[in-house]
Design brief:
Number of strands: 21
CATH superfamily of one domain: NAD(P)-binding Rossmann-like Domain
Low-confidence stretches: 496-502
Function: Catalyzes the reduction of fatty acyl-CoA to fatty alcohols.
Protein name: Fatty acyl-CoA reductase
Enzyme class: oxidoreductase
Number of helices: 26
Distance between the termini: 89 Å
Shape: globular
CATH class of one domain: Alpha Beta
Family: Belongs to the fatty acyl-CoA reductase family.
Largest sheet: 7 strands, parallel
Strand order of the largest sheet: 3-2-1-4-5-7-12
Structural class: alpha/beta
Pfam family, one: Sterile
């Protein structure tokens, strides 16, 4: 058999991909679009209610991912038109006949044009509901087959399964098909139609009993495990995948069928770049848990091998297999793994993650480095149960007893811990067949494909899938674990952004003083990470105040940071001020500093493919405003007193300067708390006569404390903002810009005395008067 050119084979082909938002499917689509842009078209089946929803999923969950970074860099602004020409999103669902495609004209078009069908769609949850897993992994495979048979130009169906359809087999596991009804244990044959009827009857029974949805889910999960183990499979996932294979082999007729059985799929080895991963794959939960200090023991059989394969190698094998098997009418199975030719052991994994996290510790939520130990290796389930008993179950029983004695004082804590321990025990039960797996996957068919590819393919380097080429030490230490860590950081970031309870508590958990600066920091993280080729300049102004010159001095809208203090002092409401003697107040006028800097930065960076540049726009480094802000306010309001609502002038005095939070708390206690306590006492003696006054003062005091707590990081701020990038921009502007005076943003040109006394404070007073009327 000669393979010829893979790229030539892909040219002008139309390919249907199901499960298009899945991990391998995305890598497959990206690879072909990148190496063979002359592919005719992709139909991507996406679970969606309509075409609009399918388009949104394509944009957000496929093309919008970092995986497509290389394509974005290659096509630039033309990517959108390229994708529009080459990719058609299709709303559908493989658990329905005709893949749930409702548009009849689109369906006819697909049947006329499709050359190859790639079925990536699956639910990979080991603990999935039986009805869901059966609908997607088993009956879904049959629906894809029936759809492919209607395609008049069809050359093959490629079905992505899993190597672990072998169940708990040991020894050398061959690339052999499952024929209809084959069970792994017992004499009873599997009747898939009977399984389908049983699922429906079980659901009907639960609904008739008016069982809550949560309990139905739990019951259907248990039912799936029960049926899987009855026939010799360890969980619902591999059982339903095995039945899907049975249906394909039995009903394929003359359709060329390729079944791909990858082992544990890890991050990309090389393409489109090393270390890309999405979600937490099988071994990754162990790696992440260990790095975070949560996994302190490992369950592993002495003869166990971890069969790991990078995702891009799986995709390369799929593409080569498509070319090799086109028009071959018999089915063929390919194991894609490493255990037979280049194994990595559990012991190797322990060593990799210990060395990695010792050199590059995980940073916890408090900003501290997590120290990791070697970890305890438990070589049997009885040892695991003993470890769990001493480490968790006995302390939990002690807490339960204490809870009873103290009238359920710790009931919430006990409930949470009990739920977590039960979850760990269930997961251990589900994963037991894999941590003690003693099989080796023979890959004779895959090896034959590799040999043919090397001998007759023109693009061997582009489609490498030889596990012998993997240097596990380099891959784990420099590619996979760093890639996984990066992905977890991104997922954390998005999770925190999406968290509805993200406020001061969440901000302080991660080291920021309030929700405003925390969410702004996360916004910058997203911009820097996802900007790709787009020129990006980030402007970081300090405390923005009124205009200095343009369009006229002193224009302001709203109370800025320092303005509430100035206005409060002028009104006679503010008697004290918290300030660190070492602090500079970093103020910058809105117009000829911030806005001018933005305009000049726009001009300089237009079309520049920079890595993202940041400009501090402030005054603390080169023209600081010291504590003479107090002096400016005092002198201004002595000369120009505030007029209160009664028409009287407000007399101001020098402020009491409090240099620490301790002195502020003492001031508040003497000035407000003690009088308030006295008022509370009088209120009680006079039968709550002053109840309303007490409530008002209580509320005001709580507000004062909250505002002080929020502003504390700023009034006691000791930082100075380096503006080296802004200074370089100013120099470049002076040398090359003919309109330097029009776009001046040099803070050294500000005369703070003149600005404060004749522009800012007067502008602030005017704005307050205008808003009053």
């Amino acid at each position: 058999m000669e393979l010829g050119s893979v790229l030539q084979f892909l040219e002008n082909k139309t390919i249907l991909v199901t499960g298009a938002t899945g991990y391998l499917a995305k890598i497959f689509v990206e690879k072909i679009l990148r190496v063979q842009p002359n592919v005719k078209k992709f139909y991507l089946l996406l679970r969606a209610a309509d075409a609009k929803s399918a388009n949104e999923r394509l944009r957000d969950e496929v093309i919008g991912r970092d995986l497509f970074r290389v394509l974005r860099e290659k096509h630039g602004a033309g990517l959108h038109s390229f994708i529009s020409e080459k990719v058609t999103p299709v709303a559908g669902d493989i658990s329905h006949e005709d893949l749930g495609v409702k548009d009849s004209s689109l369906k006819d078009e697909m049947w006329r044009e499709i050359d190859a069908v790639l079925n990536f769609a699956a639910t990979t949850n080991f603990d999935e509901r039986y009805d869901v897993a059966l609908g997607i992994n088993t009956l879904g495979a049959l629906h894809v087959l029936n759809f492919a048979k209607k395609c008049v130009k069809i050359k093959m169906l490629v079905h992505v399964s899993t190597a672990y359809v072998c169940g708990e087999d040991a020894g050398l596991i061959l690339e052999q098909p499952y024929h209809m009804g084959m069970a792994k244990k017992g004499d009873e044959k599997i009747d898939i139609n009977f399984e389908k009827r049983m699922v429906q009857e079980k659901l009907n029974e639960l609904k008739l009993e008016d069982v809550p949805e949560k309990e139905i889910t739990s019951a259907m999960k248990d039912f799936g495990i029960e049926r899987a183990r009855l026939f010799g499979w360890p969980n619902t996932y591999v059982f339903t995948k095995a039945m899907g294979e049975m249906l394909l082999v039995n009903f394929k007729d003359g359709l060329p069928l390729v079944i791909i059985r990858p082992t544990m799929v890890a991050s990309t080895y090389k393409e489109p770049f090393p270390g890309w991963i999405e979600g937490v794959r099988t071994i990754d939960s162990i790696i992440v848990g260990y790095g975070k200090g949560r996994v302190t023991c490992f369950i592993s059989g002495p003869r166990s091998t971890l069969d790991v394969i990078p995702a891009d190698m799986v995709v390369n094998a799929i593409i080569v297999a498509m070319v090799a098997r086109a028009k071959q009418h018999s089915e063929i199975i390919y194991h894609l793994g490493s255990s037979f030719r280049n194994p990595v052991t559990v012991s190797n994994l322990h060593d990799f993650i210990f060395r990695y996290f010792s050199e590059h510790p995980w940073i916890n939520k408090e900003g501290g480095s997590v120290k990791v130990g070697k970890g305890i290796v438990l070589s049997s389930m009885p040892k695991f149960y003993t470890y769990m008993a001493f480490r968790f179950l006995l302390p939990l029983k002690a807490l339960q007893l204490l809870n009873i004695l103290l009238f359920k004082k710790y009931q919430d804590v006990y409930t949470v811990l009990d739920r977590r321990v039960k979850l760990v025990m269930r997961l251990a039960d589900l994963y037991k067949p894999y941590v003690f797996f003693e099989g080796i996957f023979n890959d004779l068919n895959s090896e034959k494909l590799r040999i043919i590819s090397k001998e007759t393919c023109h693009e061997t380097d582009i489609f490498d899938f030889d596990p012998m080429n993997i240097d596990w030490d380099d891959y784990m230490m420099n590619v996979h674990i760093p890639g996984l860590r990066k992905r977890r950081a991104e997922a954390w970031l998005i999770e925190v952004v999406d968290d509805g309870g993200c406020g001061c508590g969440r901000a302080r958990l991660y080291g920021w003083p309030n929700a405003y600066v925390f969410t702004k920091a996360m916004g910058e993280m997203l911009l820097m990470h996802f900007k790709d080729y787009l020129p990006l300049a980030i402007i970081r102004p300090t405390i923005v105040s009124s205009t200095c010159k343009d369009p006229f001095p002193g224009w302001i809208e709203g109370l800025r940071n320092i303005d509430s203090l100035i206005a409060g002092y002028g009104k006679g409401s503010l008697k004290c001020f918290i300030s660190n003697p070492k602090s500079d107040i970093d103020v910058i006028p809105a117009d000829n500093m911030v806005v001018n800097a933005i305009i000049v930065a726009m001009v300089v960076h237009a079309g520049q493919k920079t890595s993202g540049i940041i400009y501090h726009v402030g005054s603390s480094l080169r023209n600081p405003v010291k504590l003479n802000l107090h002096d400016f306010s005092f002198r201004y309001f002595r000369k120009n007193p505030w007029i209160n609502r009664k028409g009287a002038r407000v007399k101001v005095k020098k402020l009491a300067i409090l240099t620490s939070m301790d002195s502020f708390q003492a001031y508040v206690a003497i000035r407000f708390l003690l009088p308030l306590k006295a008022l509370h006492l009088v209120n009680m003696l006079l039968f709550r006569k002053y109840r309303d006054a007490c409530a008002v003062l209580d509320r005001k005091l709580k507000l004062l404390r909250r505002l002080t707590d929020l502003l504390k990081p700023y009034v006691l701020f000791e930082g100075i903002f380096d503006d080296k990038n802004s200074e370089k921009l100013q120099i470049a502007s002076r040398k090359t810009c003919p309109e330097t005076n029009v776009f001046n943003f040099d803070p050294t040109s500000i005369d703070w005395e003149d600005y404060m006394m004749n522009a800012h404070i007067s502008g602030l007073v005017l704005w307050k008067i205008l808003t009053y009327f």
